[in-house]
Amino acid sequence: MKHVVFDFGGVLFQWQPPRLLQRELPHVATDQASAEALATDFFQNYTGDWAEFDRGTVGVPELVARIARRTGLAASDVQRVVDGVPRELQPVPETVDLLRRLRAAGRGLHFLSNMPLPYAQHLEDSHDFVGWFDSGVFSGRERLIKPDAEIFEFAASRFGQPPANLVFLDDHLPNVQAALRLGWQALHFRNAAQVEAELREHGWM
Fold first, then answer.
1. Nearest-CA neighbor of 60 among 77, 35, 78, 74?
2. Which single residue of 29, 68, 74, 177 could bond 22 by disulfide (Cβ 3.0 to 4.6 Å)?
3. How much is the pLDDT for 47?
4. pLDDT tens across 161-178, in order?
């Protein structure tokens, strides 16, 4: 039986950085184009400063100072975005329903998420369904990060399964590709209906 491994942001929880920036910094992200450009600059495609925050090696004060210095944004604006992330991370009902049905079917369930520790703690405290997982790995807690091989190796050991028994669902294609290279099964998540259809097609659901 395959065990299903969920990413969090963009899969189980909403994650649209341009929308986050338009909501938190409407005076800077004035339209979709400016919001998308600012998202690229702010998050660096989850490399650089934000990657270190994900990894747990940079705390909030240093992160805010780094991004403000690099982007020219006011530190108060950067802080507002950092503080606003939990408001963006709302559950995706269709994915929660898929998770519920997999759980009812007795499927092994795990998570593997690049998630800074403050947000990981917030999600655990705020959503009962996070407790439905048999086990999970947050990057900020383990100081490892996708798509590095080390976090996938650590996760397979934590989940107690060989990679071939694990089906990883992630919206970020480089993470899917990294999992496949390491012998996992993996699907590029676009929405719950699409990924459920692919799970059924492969006989994994």
1. 78
2. 29
3. 86
4. 999 999 999 999 999 999
- For position 45, what pLDDT does the model report? 85
Instruction: Name the residue among 102, 95, 67 with its Cα closest to residue 81.
Output: 67
Mean pLDDT of 76-88: 97
Tokens at residue 94, please? 């269709």
Q: Give every CB contact of residue 173 below 8 A, 6+ residues apart in sequence.
A: 188
For the chain, the structural domain boundaries read 3-14+90-201, 17-88
Architecture of 3-14+90-201 per CATH?
Answer: 3-Layer(aba) Sandwich (3.40)
**CA–CA distances in Å: residue 65 to residues 44, 62, 91, 111:** 15, 5, 30, 31
Cis check: omega of the bond before 147, within 30 degrees of 0: yes
Alpha helices in the chain (DSSP H): 17-24, 32-43, 48-55, 60-71, 75-88, 93-104, 117-126, 139-142, 149-159, 173-181, 192-201
